[in-house]
TrEMBL record:
This is Biotin/lipoate A/B protein ligase. The keyword GTP-binding does not apply. Residues 42-239 form the BPL/LPL catalytic domain. It comes from the Bacteria.
Length: 239
């Protein structure tokens, strides 16, 4: 599937777009899974939800070991909740003012005829286009990342929910992007190994993630509003 085909399929989705109220980290996880299951039963239509975080968090993947990924003491001292999401993938470091997260929930048929890698690109083509419209050189990297020449911008995770009752099944696709980053705190909270505390490792972490703030020059609220507007046009969102 090329870019034009992705754009065409996205334009037929017609999701409802929700800029959600701030939720606790655990409520974010619960809401995503609950809504995806409702969609799988046919009780909720396509939805694009932009999150607002009520507090800081570390979100680990469905299959990750908490102790292998997080220094629990450092997380507690820093006021970070540690929660597990229903999708796979790696740990996410969340600070409310420094993070932009969204979830796309669509019928399973939206992705059922493409590969896993292509399904990620299909769900995020609108985002790459939107960032390009803002002057960024954004592109897909690997299976589930979005990057620029300076480093990673964000990462995606996905889970498919089978049809339930007369419902169509659903795909849950969510993306977390770094608007800004506190690399030193991140290096203390994630992966409790001695090298993570070294200045060299902190500098390396900052280079690997390319925050949207430096690339766009926009306030976070303005950037979210621009992304919502782009998504509404790309997917022909319903009111």
């Amino acid at each position: 599937m090329d870019e034009a085909a992705r754009r065409l399929r996205l334009s037929s989705l017609h999701p409802r777009i929700i800029h959600d109220h701030p939720r606790s980290p655990q409520d974010q996880m619960d809401t995503d899974e609950r809504w995806a299951r409702l969609a799988a039963r046919g009780e909720m239509g396509p939805t694009l939800r932009f999150w607002e975080w009520a507090s800081s968090a570390v979100v680990i993947g469905r299959f990750q070991s908490l102790d292998a990924e997080v220094d629990r003491d450092a997380a507690r001292r820093g006021g970070f909740s540690v929660v597990r999401r229903c999708t796979g993938g790696g740990a996410m470091f969340i600070e409310p003012g420094n993070t932009i997260t969204y979830s796309l929930i669509a019928p399973l048929s939206f992705v059922s005829d493409v590969t896993i890698e292509e399904s990620y690109r299909l769900c995020d083509q609108w985002l790459v286009d939107a960032l390009g419209d803002l002057g960024m050189d954004a592109f897909f990297s690997g299976v589930n990342d979005i990057a620029s020449p300076k480093g990673k911008i964000g990462g995606a995770a996905q889970r498919r929910f089978p049809a339930s009752g007369d419902g169509p099944g659903s795909v849950l696709h969510h993306v977390t992007m770094a608007y800004d980053i506190d690399a030193r705190t991140m290096s203390r909270v994630l992966t409790p190994s001695a090298e993570k505390f070294a200045d060299k490792a902190v500098r390396s972490a900052a280079k690997r993630v390319d925050p949207l703030r430096s690339q766009t020059g926009l306030d976070r609220s303005d950037l979210v509003a621009r992304l919502i507007g782009s998504a509404a046009v790309s997917m022909r969102a319903v009111e």
